Amino acid sequence: MSKGQVLVLGSNATQIGLRGGGTATVGQYLNETAVPALALLDAGYDIVLATPNGAKPHIDAVSVSVDHFGGDETAFQRAKDFFASHPAMNDVRSLRSVVEGGLDGFVGVFVPGGHAPVVDLMQDHDAGTILRHFHTAAKPTALLCHGPVAVVATLDDAPAFRKALEEGDDAGAADLARGWIYSGYRMTVFSASEEKIAEEQVLKGELFFDMEKALRSAGGVVSVTDKNFASNVVVDRELITGQNPASDQAMADALIEALDRAAA
C-alpha cells in the first residue's frame, strides 16, 4: 500500500540565455531526478511528474555520466532505465492540470535541479501556486541544486523579479520580494563558486545572475559549503534544500524522513 503521492515538479527548458548574447543547452540532471525519485519509490511513496507544458523533461547530456553516481555502473544504468521507461516518468501532467485537480492529496513536493528550473519554474505562475499550497499546509518541500530557485515563483510577480535580477537591479528585486513567504528561511542552493566552474567548463558563457544572489535578494538566509561540490542539505521547517548534484541521496533521505514524520 502506498504511503502517499509526492509531486515532482519538472522543467521543460532546454536553453538558457547568457550575457553578451547567445544561449547554452540545459536540462534537468539525471541523478538529481532519478536518485530522489527512486528513493521515494523504494520507501513506499508514489510519484507524479508534472511540468509547465505537460511534456516530459529534457535531461542535460552533461549529467548522463557514471561520475554522478559515484562510479557505480549499476546505479547509473538503473537511473537511465528508470527515466526512459518507468510509467512515473512518462505519464507526465501539466502543472495547470495538477492545480485544477487539487493539491490536497499530495503529501510532499520535490523539484530536481540542473539549470532548467532557472528558465521556467522560477517564474511559472502554476509552480508558484503549487509551492504556496505546500508552504501553507506545512508539507515537506524539497528542492535540489538549481531547483531551490523555483521558490521565488511564489512571489506576486516572479517574472518581474527575475528580470530585475538579470538587469542587476538589486533594489528593484528586493522591493518585488517584500512579504515573501520564505523570507528568513534557512536554505542552500548551487553556489556562486560552483556556478563559475559550470560557466567555464559547461555553459561556455556567463549567466545573468547566480543562484545565491537570487535567493538572498528574495530574503532567503543562504549558506553553502566552503568546498565546491560537497554534499550539503539544509532543513528549515517544511523546506528541504540540497546544494548540488552530490547532495542527491542526502536530500532524498531528508525528504523521506520528513514525509515519514509527517505521516506519523
Automatic annotation (TrEMBL):
The keyword Protease applies. It comes from the Bacteria. GO terms for biological process: methylglyoxal catabolic process to D-lactate via S-lactoyl-glutathione; proteolysis. Pfam families: DJ-1_PfpI. Residues 100-153 form the DJ-1/PfpI domain. One of its GO terms (molecular function) is transferase activity. GO terms for cellular component: cytoplasm. Keywords: Glutamine amidotransferase, Hydrolase, Protease, Transferase. The keyword Glycosyltransferase does not apply. PANTHER family: DJ-1_PFPI DOMAIN-CONTAINING PROTEIN, PROTEIN/NUCLEIC ACID DEGLYCASE DJ-1-RELATED. This is Intracellular protease/amidase. It comes from Sphingomonas carotinifaciens.
